[in-house]
Amino acid sequence: MRRTALLASAALLAGLLPWAATARAADEPAPVPVDRFEGEVPFAAQPAEGIFTWGGDSDDPPALRLADRADAPEGGKVLAGSYDISGYGGFTHDYAATAPAHDWSAHRGIRLWWDGRNNGRKIAFEIKDGGANGEASELWTTSFTDDFTGWKQVELPFTGFVYRTDYQPVGGIDHVLGLKETWGYALTLPAGTKGDFAMDGVELYGTADQALRASVTTDAPVVPVREGRTAEVRVTVATTGEQPLADPVTVTYATADGTASAGTDYTPVSGTLTFPAGTASGTTRTVAVPTRRDRAAEPAETIPLKLTVSGAKAPAETPQVVVDAHGLPYLDPRLPVRKRVADLLGRMSLAEKAGQMTQAERGAMTKPGDIAGYALGSLLSGGGSTPTPNTPAAWAKMIDGFQLRTRATRFQIPLIYGVDAVHGHNNLSGATVLPHNIGIGATRDPSLAYRTGEVTAAEVRATGVPWDFAPCLCVSRDERWGRSYESFGEDPALVQSMETVIQGLQGRANGKDLSRDDKVLATAKHFVGDGGTAYGSSTTGTYTVDQGVTEVTRKQLEDIHLAPFRTAVERGVGTVMPSYSSLDIAGDGKGAVKMHARGDMINGVLKDRMGFDGFVISDWNAIDQLPGDYAAHVRTAVGAGLDMMMVPYSYKDFTATLTDEVKAGRIGEDRVDDAVARILTEKFRLGLFEHPYADTSGAAAIGSGAHREVARRAAAESQVLLKNAGGLLPLKKSEKVYVAGSNADDIGNQTGGWTLTWQGASGNTVPGTTVLQGLRRAGGDVTYSKDASAPTGGYDVGVVVVGETPYAEGVGDVGNGHSLSLSEADQAAVDKVCAAMKCAVLIVSGRPQLVGDRLDGIDALVASWLPGTEGEGVADVLYGRRPFTGQLPVTWPRTEAQLPINVGDASYDPQFPYGWGLTTLTRVPKGGTATLRDLGARAAAAERHGDDRSGRALVTEARLLVQQKAGDHLTEAVAAPFADADHLLLTGRYGKAVEKLAQAYRAA
């Protein structure tokens, strides 16, 4: 059927198709076809023009075909398909990236024929606007509901499309739906139930509405003003492309009823603003709203300013003038924090208290007015949840925008915004990305851990974020765990020694530094025992270890897993996050109980026995894993001692349920008051009531040379030299070096998970220096061949950089698509290079890799961990600018069958023991057993006199002696006492540590 025939027979179609649209109005232009589905647009993908499918999983993309249909509204074929989507899926028509974009700006909207199934399901329709091509453009979306049967022409006016806030492929371009550079459209099909569909005749229709190209905005949705002063609301008209107005725009305004009283708290105003045709885009008029002073102490009061717009798109929200709260004791910074908390708490309603106990994800704020509407206490950015563009200024602007919303609440309680800055401000592009904790543990340098905390805090706070969900104080006991790199190590004493990072983040333990512009509230996580979860115990999806069960005796719990949290509380950590995992304590009769439900541990141990006076924040949606219905989840978690719930997208359900449970008497008001008091205390200590908005004065230091120098030093000190036959390392500048391996020139692999996104990604993801670039900058004579395919003749030494690709949490569990073995490509590269020349193998990974079968052919072996963005730090030790000083923070196993294997085990025969780490550029003391006896006596004396510096130095000398003698012949008789000695060193028992080393020496 030709298009003219279709239009000519519109009346007939209207009878046959009950939902058919009528013919266009006489003054409207003819529709412009986009897709007829007659074969004119192929099934293809970028950079060519075409239709292609996509989905969250391999089985989520729909199956598409061009089907012959006698009832096709347009031509003889339709686009038909079937789908069975578990996550998300759909299809796209992109225009060719090699051709100009299309101009849709002359049209009112886009429409299509849809074969209705009357299933009530929503179909999301998206258009791609601006940018370089279809995969680098802004996404604008709307939807229609399949609530009809048979063919219907669905019209989607462009004025109904909204900018996607949950996902943009490359970030915002201008946040304006210009339509002059349109790259195509996409449909997202319903998930959860099998279905099929048919569509036809996608076309542009109608004449553009000026409301699409012209809009009226106000400078802010909330305009705070001090009592007695005049608020100024700036009203601006703007057009796409900054063209003058084609038609006049009028804005009628009038103050309306809010919580402020007209005539008492403010002087009512009304009137009309006129923007004539020809007015320049960006022109602003001001509405002045005078407020009155009555000298009484009052909470904040609101004055809505209603705007009626003609000729342009109206503001999305009615702006509110807010007369600031004033004169109330909690606002007085001269009062002690406890008095300010008591005063504010006594004024709050139950709903306001429930809001303070609620944390939502920024991506859930599609209606930012909910911040005030639900009196939310906190927002967070999950991994990869970033503003557009992902810059320090955009972060500060975004958070200030959220913070502004709190000004419209009665008591103007500021939000506390949190991020997972677990190795630097890792969500921010351009931030300094430090080694992950496993590498920091390898440095054995508490002062360096402190400096990494300082760098992180300064960069995080400079973007307006006052709260960091770090550090992770887990004691990792099984390297098959996907979170093992988040741990400082397997020994609680090592983890405790690295907790100087808390002072780096927060400052002094008394909290006096928290209001500084370079400090953040820290979070000790995950309480308690997540590092001890047993392999195979997880019931979360396909995870094998993460979120599983930790089975311990009471003594093991105290000595291994609780010890780091005791230290954290002593250091004044402000918040604690429980683990997803379950705890099963032998003999307590409870069995395996989710940590978020263990009141005996949270209330009993953490708060009562340890004296923790900060607040407890749940993990992401963790309360949903508790038994029972949702009300039971809330009762259990609050009763167990959780003070704030991270309920990213279910904040409405949580606040409503919490309120209902308190009203019903199933949650005590005193428990709620305790939770809110703890939260308010930290907000006051952070200075948020006096300075709620971002202080960006430190933004220039983000990613600065000084900060990257700390990261470079950390990367260098984290390198652990496991083997160095013939003194191959350090390299000489005169040597010709052949570099190979998958991780030599991949900054994404080098930084690992929790870098820009939750899982991280391979490739050129963040600014920084790869290991290869570091070697080149060091001045070496370097040739690179990733897969070692280039000729290997004529080189003095090979450097093969291999290891893991990024992952996070249970996604990275061994057995969940991951192993501890090198990939086949990595093995081949090692084999080829090491067969051709002397070689050093660097393993860039979050945990030990099994290399015992190749160890004899490797001259030097280095555990590089995940060194962050500063590959020059790795080059520093390879070329001898710095010495190798790192020590294993975890035991390096011979085989996976040995796992779990940890220092102190009754049977302990690893490839390399805990604490092992050869040195370069360091004098190894001469002597043997007599020297060790002397070192032991002096170490014991240092211990008695409290001379920690001398004690550590003496143990280090003894350790170097043992490593020199043992060489590559590590037996259980050597490894066990050697590892024990490092634990003794960390607990200050220097004399005993040397005794153990002497035992290892005799066995070597």
TrEMBL record:
Pfam family, one: CBM_11
UniProt domain Calx-beta: residue ranges: 206-308
KW Calcium (keyword) present: yes
Domain of life of the organism encoding this protein: Bacteria
Catalyzed reactions: Hydrolysis of terminal, non-reducing beta-D-glucosyl residues with release of beta-D-glucose
UniProt KW keywords: Calcium, Glycosidase, Hydrolase, Repeat, Signal
Enzyme Commission number(s): 3.2.1.21
Signal peptide (residue range): 1-25
Alphabetized InterPro entries for the sequence: CalX-like_sf, Calx_beta, CBM11, Cellulose_Degrad_GH3, Galactose-bd-like_sf, GH, Glyco_hydro_3_AS, Glyco_hydro_3_C
One of the record's GO molecular function terms: hydrolase activity
Family: Belongs to the glycosyl hydrolase 3 family.
Protein name: beta-glucosidase
